[in-house]
Amino acid sequence: MGLFSKLFQSNEKNFVSPMTGKVVAMSDIPDPAFAQKMMGDGCGIELTDGTIVAPFDAKVTAAFPTGHAFGLEAKEDGTEVLIHIGIDTVEMEGEGFSSNIKVGDEVKQGDVLVVVDLEAVQEAGKSLVSPIAFTGNNKVEVFKIGQNVVAGEKGLLNYK
Question: Which of 40, 43, 108, 153 is deepest in the core (most CB within 10 A)?
């Protein structure tokens, strides 16, 4: 790698939005554990589409049998992220969630992790705001708070 390529090398990680919807600041997530960043820094997305995809090539480190939450470890750099679909959706006991992903699976960026019936979540009285938390000590910079993002799209955030 030459001097100029080192100087101008992008620090941006290969992370895409795992969900489609409106971006919410971590502090505005309606769950104190996430809002106070107890689970790590990140953001939330208020879902407008029920397909949740892998944000990067990863190993699945946690997959709740209810299909409402997944832990992923990036193959590229070991970064760990928790994707939690909705708030208090564990109480739905898997109703409205369809996933075949299990712990130990290898997923590629864009692979479907779970498909969620948004209507079922709303009918159960649960929030569609879905936290994305970096569970290590990552510094996270979110670029699109208040804007809509599409699953698989770059530019949601950067992390170190």
Answer: 43
